[in-house]
Each structure stands twice: as structure tokens, then as C-alpha cells.
Amino acid sequence: MADLSFHKSTRRLLGAFAAVSIAFAAGATAASAETDIKMVLNWKYQGPQGLLFLAEDNGYFKEAGLNVTMDQGNGSGAAVPLVANGTYDIGFGDINALIEYASKKPEDAPVAVFMMYNRPPFTIAVKADSDIKEPKDLPGHTLGGAANDGALKLFPAFCAITGIDCTKIEITNMQPNLREQMLMQGQVDGVFGYVNTIRFSAKLIGVDPEKEIRFINYGDYGMDLYSNAIIVSKKFVTEHPDAVKAFVAALNKGIKDAIADPEAAIASVSKREPLIKPDIERERFDATLADEMNHPELATVGLGNVDEARLAKSIDILVKANDLPRTPAVSEVFDPSFLPPKDELLTSLK
Questions:
Q1: Residue 112: strand pairing partners
Q2: Closest by alpha carbon to 255, among 228, 226, 223, 218?
Q3: How far apart (Å, rounded) are the C-alpha atoms in residues 303 and 294?
Q4: What per-residue string of b and e applies to 118-153 under the rule 16 or more CB within 10 Å gives b?
Q5: CA atoms within 13 A on the CB side of 346
Q6: What is the rounded CA–CA span in Å between residue 25 and residue 15?
Q7: SS3 track for the chain
Q8: Residues in the chain with pLDDT < 70?
């Protein structure tokens, strides 16, 4: 009887151990069941990237079951094909480049799910003492830009809308880090870029952009376009819709934190790139909020969403000006279904 009792006790003990082991294994599996996301940024590590980094540093991606890797980018336009071809799942890229891609390759085009920059930052910067004062002065001059620069990619549309002859303007490509130097040294007559990228990069090389640079802004000439958005590959949207929704919700929380505490956002950038100048990157951060994210529609649709009529007009502008093969529907370009509820979106950046 004692032996039988011993064996029963042993079986109970082994059963308990097995149950604990199964529970532990299940817990370990759940803990490791994060969704990996590879993301490419629009540019190098600068102040505005703190809007994304803070979501990671405050643990929002992790809480949502996401393992997000964010790599530096090489231009807002460059993010679109990198997401389309599967190199990255998500990108922070120019929606105008996405529109062009969707027109030409609708079966592969990514879709935007969160609009970050709702005002057009595209510009041509010239020296303040230049004889180029408006678009009609550009023919006969040389302009330079990085191959994947959003403003350069939109230049044919800008020419069409302003009625200037693009063929009489010489375009040269340059490395992004040489742009402001080449402009100030007179190697080119003007450069393409985003207003605040040029403005603060000029400051970093000792140039006063308020006194030494003139900006010819696309938005002043009828191009009221959207700009950078969070874009997602078709494959990732199809296979991981819940992860996309979780990513957008986490990002939305991080943006709120960054706007409430800009110094924390800049600290997140410094953590990744210790060589930045925090004071200048804080200025760049503030200017981005004021100039690129503060369209009047914000009060109505909320940060992250779009005005469909305005986006449709933007699509028409690009299709006509660039003679694109087809006009993508708004739904092909932007999908609002992944956004948090409207009352969770920012309607003011103050």
C-alpha cells in the first residue's frame, strides 16, 4: 500500500510539474509573439524624428506587441519604392511620390495610413541676393537637389502650374549633405528641398537663413499638397492589419507626448545620434509643427487624417502636371480605417 501511495504521489507531482512547464512554455511563446516591423524614415536623425522615436522610447510599440526597427532614410521620395518592393514594411514617405507610384504600378503601391505633414514644405532655395525672385526667373539657371528629394520630384508639376519651361533649367544631382554649401558657394543657383530641412541645415554651417536665403515655396503657387505620411506595403497591410492599427495608435500616443514635451523628443533623437546640436534640432522640431503639420483642416479632421476633397484635388494636380497614366482613387492612396477614434486625434498642436 505504501508503494502504491508513493507512486500516486509521484504521478501527481510529475503532473504538476508538467502543467507548470506547459504554462511556462505558453507564456514564453506569448511573450515572444511580437510582430517585427522594419521601418525606413524620410531622412537622417533630426529633431522632427523625435515624433516617432518617443513612441518607441516610451514603450508604446512594445506594449502593442510590436518590435519596430527604424532606419535612417535618404529622401521622402525614396521611402516609397523601398516599401513597395518589400525592403521595408512601413515608411515615412512623401504621399505625392506614392500617388505617382500608384498611378503607374497600382498592384504594388503602398497605402498611407497616417498623415503627418499636412502642409506643403516643398521649396526652391536661392541666395538672398540672387536675381531669382519668383518662378519666371528660373529659366537659364542651374538648380540642384538630391535624386530622391520630394521637391525635385514635384518640379515638373511646379513648372506646369507656374507656366515656366523646365527644359530651359539645368538640373544637377548632389549629395544631400552638400546642398547648402553648394548653394552658398555659388556652385548652383538654387536647390530643392523642404523649407525647414534647408533652413536648419544652413544654420548648422553658420548661414543665417533669414538674411542669406530666399525661399520660393510651392504652396504659394497653387500647390496646396499633402506631404509626408506613414505608408505601409500592400503585403503587410493584408497580412498584419491588427499590427498596422496598433502601430498607428502607438505612434499617435508618442506624437502627443512629443508635442507636450519637445525636450523629451529631442532627447530621443540625441540618444540615436549624439552629434546633433539639440538647440538647433529643437528649433527645427518647433518649425516643423508650425509650418508642416498645422494646416487649418487640423481642427476638423484631426492630425493623421485627411480632407478627402483636398487629397482628390492634389491627385488631380499631379496626374495632370506629370501626365500620369491613370488617376488613382483617394482610397488607393489613403486608408483612414487604421486611425484611432476621432476624439483621440489631435485637433491643435498648442
A1: 231, 334
A2: 228
A3: 9
A4: bbbbbbbbbbeebebeebebbeebebbbbebbbbbb
A5: 25
A6: 15
A7: CHHHHHHHHHHHHHHHHHHHHHHHHHHHHHHCCCEEEEEECCCCCCHHHHHHHHHHHCCHHHHCCEEEEEECCCCHHHHHHHHHCCCCCEEEEEHHHHHHHHHHCCCCCCEEEEECCCCCCEEEEEECCCCCCCHHHCCCCEEEECCCCHHHHCHHHHHHHHCCCHHHCEEEECCHHHHHHHHHCCCCCEEEEEHHHHHHHHHHCCCCHHHHEEEEEHHHHCCCCCCEEEEECHHHHHHCHHHHHHHHHHHHHHHHHHHHCHHHHHHHHHHHCCCCCHHHHHHHHHHHHHHHCCCCCHHHHCEEECCHHHHHHHHHHHHHHHCCCCCCCHHHHECHHHCCCHHHCCCCCC
A8: 1-32
Whether the CA torsion 215, 216, 220, 226 is positive or negative: it is negative
Rounded to whole angstroms, how far apart are CA atoms 197 and 49?
A: 12
> Which pTM does this prediction carry?
0.85
Residue labelled with grid coordinates 553648394: 182
What is the pLDDT, as a whole number, of residue 322? 86
pLDDT at 31: 38
Question: Which amino acid type is present at position 174?
Answer: M
